């Protein structure tokens, strides 16, 4: 899946994220990078980015890694966020870049998942950094993966 295809997927499957400006910029063997810029649709009354928009971008940086493994999987996999935690360190203004580097973790979870029938639960982290290099927020998501039944 190309970056362009993924962002088109956002338009049709996650339109709120798309219209708020959330975009996948990089998906590699090392990381996923998602950006979102402060705009009229995603700002709060305090002239910074609404926390939920940051959460959408952070979740996408983790979920894109999982989706890339789901696409390669020989079996159908369901994925769901079961818990999350967030920490806000600075007002999010301008363009915020969320990066998740948990690619190896996801690859290992898929290897285990394909060998068992119990599913997998694991935590992934994404960090949001502003244009000045300051960390504005950190998000953690617990993902649940399960093989879909064939029936």
Produce a short descriptive summary:
The chain is of the alpha+beta class and 151 residues long.
What would you say this structure looks like, in words?
By secondary structure, the protein is an alpha+beta fold. The protein has a single domain, classed as Roll (Thiol Ester Dehydrase, Chain A), CATH 3.10.129.10. Helices cover 34% and strands 34% of the residues. It contains 4 helices and 6 strands; from the N terminus they run H-H-E-E-H-E-E-H-E-E. Strands 1-2-4-5-6-3 form a 6-stranded antiparallel beta sheet. Strand 1 and strand 2 form a beta hairpin. It is globular. The two termini are 28 Å apart.
Question: What structural keywords apply?
Answer:
globular, alpha+beta, Thiol Ester Dehydrase, Chain A, 6 strands, six-stranded antiparallel sheet, 34% strand, 151 residues
What's the rounded overall pLDDT mean?
Answer: 94
Order of helices and strands: HHEEHEEHEE
Number of helices: 4
Q: How does the overall form come out from the CA principal axes?
A: globular
Furnish the topology, listing elements before pairings:
Blueprint: H1 3-13, H2 15-20, E1 23-27, E2 32-37, H3 51-72, E3 77-88, E4 95-100, H4 103-115, E5 120-129, E6 135-147
């Amino acid at each position: 899946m190309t970056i362009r295809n993924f962002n088109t997927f956002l338009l049709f499957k996650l339109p709120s994220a798309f219209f708020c400006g959330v975009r996948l910029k990089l998906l590699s063997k090392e990381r996923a990078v998602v950006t979102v810029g402060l705009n009229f649709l995603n700002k709060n009354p305090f002239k910074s980015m609404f926390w939920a928009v940051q959460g959408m971008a952070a979740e996408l940086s983790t979920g894109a890694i999982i989706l890339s493994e789901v696409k390669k999987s020989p079996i159908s996999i369901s994925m769901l966020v079961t818990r999350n935690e967030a920490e806000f360190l600075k007002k999010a203004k301008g363009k915020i870049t969320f990066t998740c580097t948990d690619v190896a973790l996801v690859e290992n979870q898929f290897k285990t998942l394909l060998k068992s029938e119990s599913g997998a639960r694991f935590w992934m982290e994404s960090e949001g950094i502003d244009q000045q290099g300051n960390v504005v927020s950190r998000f953690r998501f617990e993902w649940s993966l399960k093989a879909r039944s064939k029936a």
